[in-house]
Structure formats: C-alpha cells, structure tokens
Write a structure and sequence with these properties.
The complex is a heterodimer of chains A (114) and B (111). Chain A has 114 residues and is an all-beta fold. Chain A has strands at residues 5-7, 10-13, 19-24, 31-38, 42-50, 53-56, 65-71, 74-79, 88-95, 104-105, 109-113. By secondary structure, chain B is mostly beta strands. Chain B has strands at 4-6, 11-14, 19-25, 32-38, 45-50, 54-58, 61-66, 71-76, 85-92, 99-101, 105-110. Classes of the chains: A mainly beta (114), B mainly beta (111).
Chain lengths: 114, 111
C-alpha cells in the first residue's frame, strides 16, 4: 500500500511568494495532520482534520497560513506571503481515528524561503 | 511546563549495550503513548505504542509505562549503529486524535 504522499519534496522560493504544499493521506484514514519541524522548535502540530473537517488549528502560526481538505484524499497547506522564518520541513501525517490512532508520516516537504 | 519532556541528548552508548530513553508528560488524561524514530533528513517512523501500565516488548525494543509517575521509557537492547537516530516520544490525549510530541532524544550507538 502507498503511504502518505507529499509534494513537492523540496521547495525554494523568495520572500513574499505564495507556497502550496500538498498531501495525499493513506487510503481509508480519516484524520490528517500538518506538522512543521525546525531545529529550534522541534515537531509542531499546525492543524488537524477529522473526516475533512478542521478540528484544531490552534497551531497555525498566523493568518498567512491556511489549510484545506476538500476531500478524503487530498489536503493543502498554503503560506501567503511566505517569509524566511517559515523555512522548515513540513510533514503531513494520517491516521484512522479509532482505538489505535497511530499516525503515519509522509516524507515531508523541505521549504526554504530566501 | 512543557507537556512532553525528553532529554535532548546526545545519548551515547557502545554497540551491544542497552539504550534507555525517557519521556515524561504533564497531562494525567493522556491515554496512549508512542515512540517514533527519526533518521536525519527523514520522516518519523513508528517503533511501537503502549496503552497500559507495565512493559511491552517488540524484538529488541521494550516500552515501559508508569501512568502514576507520568513516565514512559523505551529500552533498546543490543544497540546497533543503525539505531543511531532521534527518538521522539508522542502522547495522545483523551479528548482528541492529535499527538503532543516531545523534543526528541538523539541517540548515538558507537561501534
């Protein structure tokens, strides 16, 4: 079975540009999570969805960040406008909400904002 | 107080020794506990999870949970250089599906 798929794997952009990260969760999973990882702050939860509905977006740093999940097999995380401090690795993870909510991570998108 | 705490390391052990990784958490409502391994430049991968007090063994790995002390640990027996990675402790709270991750402990197994 395919795991969590993320694209692009690497993104280099200039400050002020819009960045869109994409995620396809594991088929059958109904929870999806967006994380950001930096050396300084570790792995931070940005937002998570359950059955395509945003449940907790308290980790979204500011209005420049937005996330959508239009259907069960696709989600986007958008940063507009991007800033150098947004440089990080962004992970998407999915799980099946049940008695064993194990999260499975995608390969991540390494974002560099110049 | 941070919700999930781990020693950042690095923890260095010789090959063949037992590596002991520790994690404490603050919310007594925490229900399940996960250990992830993350190699440099890679994504976290699940090693094992534990829900009940006591020990859970899987191959060379043993997870130990003590809810009264709010403490979970991971023991790696017969450590190998390939075990060198950062180990992340994650805690799942009662009321949601989201995890709270600790900062991770960097383990170095010396040949």
């Amino acid at each position: 079975d395919a795991g969590v798929i993320q694209s692009p794997r690497h993104e280099v952009t200039e400050m002020g540009q819009e960045v869109t990260l994409r995620c396809k969760p594991i088929s059958g999973h109904n929870s999806l999570f967006w994380y950001r990882q930096t050396m300084m702050r570790g792995l931070e939860l940005l937002i998570y969805f359950n059955n395509n509905v945003p449940i907790d977006d308290s980790g979204m740093p500011e209005d420049r960040f937005s996330a959508k999940m239009p259907n069960a097999s696709f989600s986007t995380l958008k940063i507009q406008p991007s800033e150098p401090r947004d440089s990080a690795v962004y992970f998407c993870a999915s799980s099946f909400a049940g008695s064993q909510p194990t999260q499975y991570f995608g390969p991540g998108t390494r974002l560099l904002v110049l | 107080q941070k919700e999930v705490e781990q020693n950042s390391g690095p923890l260095s052990v010789p090959e063949g020794a037992i590596a002991s990784l520790n994690c404490t958490y603050s919310d007594r409502g925490s229900q399940s506990f996960f250990w992830y391994r993350q190699y440099s430049g890679k994504s976290p991968e699940l090693i094992m999870f534990i829900y009940s007090n006591g020990d859970k063994e899987d191959g060379r790995f043993t997870a130990q949970l003590n809810k009264a002390s709010q403490y979970v640990s991971l023991l790696i027996r017969d450590s190998q250089p390939s075990d060198s990675a950062t180990y992340l402790c994650a805690v799942n709270l009662f009321y949601g599906q989201n995890f709270v991750f600790g900062p991770g402990t960097r383990l170095s197994v010396l040949p």
